[in-house]
Design goal:
mainly alpha, 0% strand, 138 residues, 7 helices, elongated
């Protein structure tokens, strides 16, 4: 199984658990259209994009020591927890048209992805310092 597919499956499992909890609290406020659930995957795309920017590919994590694989999986799980809140603004903002629904979800997904990227930027940017100390290989 490829590294991207594995991260997508883990992300989907995490998002299913946490987004269902968020949706169970907000579903009485408004009804979501099926296309709105696509926006849940914006934080995952952010993490994958950051892995490509800083490491060249997602498979680069799997060619390193197991601590890097664990580090990657933690990033995917964290993105899933953040991504579960992408649809929350739709419960509080009244959007009648399809364009308004897309706009609210796009703003929420993009802003949560940017916030997540800023918090993870420090972790990914430390790669240059960490690799100079040579983490122990197993």
């Amino acid at each position: 199984m490829g590294a991207i597919l594995q991260s997508l499956l883990i992300y989907t499992c995490v998002i299913a658990v946490f987004a269902s909890m968020v949706h169970s609290k907000g579903r009485h406020l408004t009804r979501l259209a099926p296309f709105e659930f696509i926006f849940l995957f914006m934080p995952w795309l952010t993490v994958v994009l950051m892995a490509f920017i800083f490491f060249g590919s997602v498979e680069a994590f799997y060619q390193r020591s197991p601590i890097w694989i664990f580090f990657w999986l933690l990033q995917v799980i964290g993105a899933g927890m953040v991504g579960s809140f992408v649809l929350m603004p739709r419960y509080f903002v009244k959007a009648d048209t399809i364009g308004a629904k897309i706009l609210v979800n796009l703003i929420a997904g993009f802003s949560l992805s940017v916030i997540f990227a800023f918090t993870r930027l420090v972790l990914f940017a430390l790669h240059g310092e960490v690799s100079s100390y040579d983490w122990p290989e197993e």
